[in-house]
Amino acid sequence: MIVFDRVYFSYGSRTILNGLSFSIGPQERVAILGGSGEGKTTILKLIMGLIKPDSGIILVDGEDITIKSEAHLREVRLKFSIVFQEGALFDSLNVKENVAFCLREYTKMTEEEIDGRVRELLRVVGMEHAIGLMPDELSGGMHRRVAIARSLAAYDPLMFLYDEPTAGLDPISADTICRLILDLAGGGRGLIMVTHKVSDALKVAGRFMFLKEGRVLFDGDRENLVRTALPEIRMFMSELECKLTKE
Ligand SMILES: Nc1ncnc2c1ncn2[C@@H]1O[C@H](COP(=O)(O)OP(=O)(O)OP(=O)(O)O)[C@@H](O)[C@H]1O
Ligand SMILES: [Mg+2]
User: Fold this and answer.
1) Whose CA is nearest to atom 1 of ligand 1?
2) Tens of pLDDT, residues 74-84
3) How remote is the CA of residue 120 from the centroid of ligand 2, in Å?
4) Whole-model pTM?
């Protein structure tokens, strides 16, 4: 579904991705791990065609999206549902209008149909009761759930992309989000979750990629991850071990 072949990307003179290569199948559940600034969000933006690499090939469903026109990229984007790292909701719109936004933009649904669809999506994320609230009246976890509902509006994505969906949440809210992410990927749809949190990655993913200096330092399953001797990854795992010993 997604192939990166020797992808280079830089901001000015700063190289972010340094010949990055990987491939992800349509039904895989992948966590991309790595330190702050390693280029995780950049990868999601490249997959969506929001930015272009300096060189290299990016295939989505067999098509090289680096050479596609903006009109064609809109179609490519519809294959994905994405929840961005920050600023996921429009502050001036209430929950209903936030979720309805794409329905109004991309469909010809009637007001009644939109209302029904918004309620259905809010029910999926357990937020129907908050339909009339403004974003600043929501907690972080509620905000994230509404953002997920909004990302599901209008179309039926082939794959889900999440950028730090549990950042800044208490463990219970983070767990709720992880369950939701898993539920939504049911029925054989894939997902990519970008995160710093190994504990959350282990809840949703079956494959783990660890980025370092613009390349894949590690790529393996749960067992490989837990057993790895790579010091960078052990540092990430220590957060988890620390929690386990306390429990
Ligand atoms: N628009 C931009 N202009 C210049 N530099 C940028 C821009 N966006 C990101 N960067 C830089 O590119 C690097 C990679 O950014 P990216 O957002 O992909 O990192 P990340 O792995 O998602 O980090 P985090 O875990 O903190 O979210 C960072 O060093 C960042 O400072
Ligand atoms: Mg990021």
Assistant:
1) 11
2) 888 889 989 88
3) 30
4) 0.89
